[in-house]
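Dear support,

I submitted the protein below through the web form. The confirmation email said the job was done, but the results page showed an empty box. After a refresh the structure appeared. I'm attaching both so you can tell me whether what I see now is the final result or a partial one.
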Amino acid sequence: MAKVATNANFADMLQDDKLVIVDFWAVWCGPCRMLSPIVDEIAEEMADKVTVVKCNVDDCEDIAMQYRIMSIPTLIFFKNGEIVDKTVGAMPKSALVEKINAHLQ
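What the results page shows now:
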């Protein structure tokens, strides 16, 4: 299951030993609603390899500004607290799994 980010806990969530994927989204965003079930599936199916964090840009405006989120959905991939990849827009599950697997090697 994906974790929910807040302004208070966001920095701590990035300090995971696993690959951390942060999904920047909003309730009103159509493409976010398309990507969200895919991200949720990956959070469950790959829980032993990745940590998935959902960050609502309306609730966490400071975080969205800090990472210069201009379009959503945006996924940012972190390893050891550092950004290693970023995607913008919806994508099929197969493409997202392929991208994740590339960072797990």
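Response: this is the final, complete result; the empty box was a page-load delay. The chain has a mean pLDDT of 94.
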